[in-house]
């Protein structure tokens, strides 16, 4: 029998314009043009069919803020474990697994992409590494890393750079590499590894790209395993050393060491989860600074006011959310906002649409740092799987914003806005490259 998850709540379906109706009928999130400019499609779904079955993806798209919040608060009915493993290398999972067993030291399921009660134990352990307090202590060091990187680009760029490839991507990689205790100078490799891991949840792989990605992931795992062995023998002050020696606390208070498989998966998750996402947020920052009138001036006016700057960053994450949609799978028949979903169905929580929901954020396309409910955005998800790295992510974006204003001015897009390309994936909305011009300040 179907279970009602959100009592009898059924939102009003609005009448669609003929264009919206056609978009709803023909659109799919698998279409790369819609992935690049998704907002009309999101709106059509929110208004006409808020829990929309995307046939091409074989997924139910949850698009309203209220429904996203309800689903993410019920991790038992809507399983992350099954959602992610089903999404991983969709349709080619066995081959993917076999490749990693043969070439990548093993197949290590994501320990954090799991369900309670197991997830709760792993999550506690990870949270210790990312507390707001611990992150605050990192601010001076991260500021130095970001300062140096931007100073280098300004000195060498001759008024030109690729804001994504020269700044956003290497910046986030340098920060996390330092935290984990990995080797610097591997930005290109780590960037390729990140793309390969995130492609597993992007729903856009062919067999050929899946095998290329598996090769990258094998390379990544072999590197991490060697590092972990090194730090097991000689611990240093960093997160890999912490993870290889970490113990989880069981419900009865007893402690247990992480298994090797768990430790590898958590090192991999920490290296990758924050890279693409935070780099995307910083790339998006350059995008709005160079294309949206008044935003660069607004940032300059708040940059020395910590509180206002924080509000600016939150509104930026709401308006341009890096993560678009992540997976769940139903563990029983269920009704969400009037729509019946069978057990074992794949779902995507469309965070990008939740942040655009006009019933929660009036005039969602206007950038307004005075919104009273700014903090309700779902760029970091919510419920028990809410982003673990959010304090670090916020701080990196904030530090980047400060350093950009201090060192660069009169930034302009060096290509037409219509030429900007986005990574083909349902999971994030990521600008691939952003050539800009600027003057040194
Ligand atoms: C602006 C940057 C970031 C964004 C937009 C972002 C977004 C998200 C979102 C939406 C989720 C929820 C996943 C779900 O609902 O299934 C999540 C989870 C997670 N994030 Fe982030 N993230 C960012 C940065 C980071 C950083 C810097 C790290 C760590 C270095 C990190 C580590 C994680 C981990 C480990 C999880 C899984 C948590 C769990 O399942 O319990 N993220 N993130």
UniProtKB/TrEMBL annotation:
Domain of life: Bacteria
PANTHER family: P450, PUTATIVE (EUROFUNG)-RELATED (PTHR46696:SF6)
InterPro entries listed in its UniProt record: Cyt_P450 (IPR001128), Cyt_P450_B (IPR002397), Cyt_P450_CS (IPR017972), Cyt_P450_sf (IPR036396)
UniProt protein name: Cytochrome P450
Similarity comment: family membership: Belongs to the cytochrome P450 family.
Keyword S-adenosyl-L-methionine found: no
Membrane spanning residue stretches: none
Swiss-Prot/TrEMBL keywords: Heme, Iron, Metal-binding, Monooxygenase, Oxidoreductase
